[in-house]
Each structure stands twice: as structure tokens, then as C-alpha cells.
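Re: weekly structure request thread

Next one in the queue (105 aa):
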Amino acid sequence: MFESPEGNSGPEKSPTDAVETEGSPLAIKDFEEALNRLEEIVRRLEAGDLPLEDAMRLFEEGMKLSAYCGSKLDEADRRVEILVRNSRGRLEAKPFTPGEGNDHE
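Done, posted below.
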């Protein structure tokens, strides 16, 4: 477990919490930060005014950020649950599985 700035133990970090770019880790605090950086990279690449080496470097960083964001979305997907009423009328958490009759009846 990692200590947060407030001194509370935070969730355990996965190996994808540091994204390697150009031989050194890029410190990513969270999914939103990684996504914002990825969007910035896409804008710069789409502008088309970068030298080839800079464009290649940004493309590589973008691919790593994309993989990081994808892994975070996969983690979130595994954690999503819905509350359903059981036969006794009590709410219970069930894993959400798209397409398996999770409609609220």
C-alpha cells in the first residue's frame, strides 16, 4: 500500500501507474491526467507541423498512454457492480455483465 499525502493508505498501485517514455517513467497521477495528455498529443500530431523525430516520440508516448488508459478502463470494468433485489426483497450487489438481463425490472 502507498501512503497518500494525508497519511492514509491508498489503494495498491499497479505496475501500470508509471508509464515509461524515452527510457524514463512518466509520472501519471490518474486516468484523467493520462487521458488529457493523450488528447494533447493527438492534437499536436493532427496539426502536422512537427519534425518527424518529434512526431515519432509523441506517437510512442501516446501509445503507452493509450495502453495505460485501456488497462485502467479494464480495471474499472471488472469493478462495476449493480444492485439488484433478491427473492427476499433485499438489495445485493451483483457483477455487471452487459447483455445478461441486468435491466431494472
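The radius of gyration is 20 Å. DSSP finds two helices and four strands in the chain.
Next request, please.
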